[in-house]
Amino acid sequence: MAKSISKIVIVLLLIVLFGYIAISGLSLTALNIPYEFYSVFDKDHGIRLGFDLSGGSVIVYEAQSDVAPTDEQMSTVVDIMYKRLDKEGYTEATASRQGDRRVLIEIPTIENPDEAIKILGATAELKFVDSEGNVVLTGKDVKDAKAVYGPTSESGISEHYVELKLNANAQEAFFNATTKMSAKPQGENFIAIMLDEEIFSQPTVKEPINADTAIIQGDFTAETAKSLATTIKEGQLPFKLNAVERRSAGPALGDDALKTSILAAVIGILLVMLFMIIMYRLPGFVASISLAAYVVIVLLVMVATRANLSLPGIAGIILSIGMAVDANVIIFERIKDELRIGKTTGAAMRAGFNRALSAVIDANITTIIVAVVLYIFGTGTIKGFALTLGIGILASLFTAIILTRFLLKAIFDLNLKNPALYGLSNKKAKEGEANV
After folding, report:
1. Sequence-distant (≥ 6) Cβ neighbours of residue 408 within 8 angstroms
2. Domains of the chain with bracketed CATH
3. How many CB atoms are located within 10 Å of the residue 44 CB?
4. pLDDT 10s digits, 90-139
5. DSSP label at 69?
């Protein structure tokens, strides 16, 4: 009995401990350990809030082109904007077309529009141009781009640079161009690397280069090298964009939207716990503990992954809470069914879990598949909904199948075996025993 009590107390203490960490954060720097877990309420490192809950930056870009952009070009711009935002972790940001020449961008949590423009505004028109003015390569010839830190010359001095992976046709063109340039006299034997019509670097070509890689050197930091690599990799804009409007915006749903949402969630969870306890008694109490553990797990994972939380994201969490409660209801109803036919409480618990297991797993796995598909192919708020739904479903699987079973077993070992404690009236329990 003491062992069972210890198990229950340890679980409760762990839930309280990790709940405290989720709310207040944890720093080990005082112990000379470079580790810090941020609070869910930390604006810079906690859960990112969507535009509807936190506000952010609004930017309107206009195409700078003498010829009216085609529908395909404007769709390309929107797609590239989404890719750049996703790479920066702003999965809740939105990009939408406005009229024939404009694109509206809404980025949550960024209050300074100029910071957002740095992320999105680069046209990244990449060219390799020889000393005769011939374009040797363009960004379309680049298969991949990544930021690298390491030595770039015989001196062995390390620096940040961008490494480009060329496709097969580009490799041949680059070899031909470097062969030609290496035969030129000093001062004319170079290939300039140009970005947005500005010379970024102008390396001298001393010998033919037959390789599928090229590098861009400059006064890079780790962040600027990564930003340039991402911009090149995710695609060049078909034309230059001018930010004709930039402004900060408050939460679309008002400043109290987040507080109201949290309050509603807390009230809803408490009501669900009360319902479970009334309907299922001891198992309902266990389900309430599991639900508290579920909430803590979801908060910790969302902080660790810096997930975006908007109204669709909250909807994903609510849906996963419903799945978690549904899983417990299925399990407890199967246990009650076994008690009704006269099985002992221990046998009813084992049989009930075994009968419910396949139904619970199947329902959750299909939902996870849907969440994965939505995350891969969705954009903006759809992606945020899919992420929170996936996190919630995985957490509910753990709490319903593992934690609930563990706690029920511990409670049963306390000699609490009366069927009435498991949601079945004494009258029905006696009827079940008489039918055996």
Report:
1. 282, 283, 286, 349
2. 2-32+254-435 (1.20.1640.10), 56-122+241-249 (3.30.70.3400), 126-236 (3.30.1360.200)
3. 7
4. 777 888 898 888 999 888 877 677 766 766 765 556 788 999 989 988 87
5. P
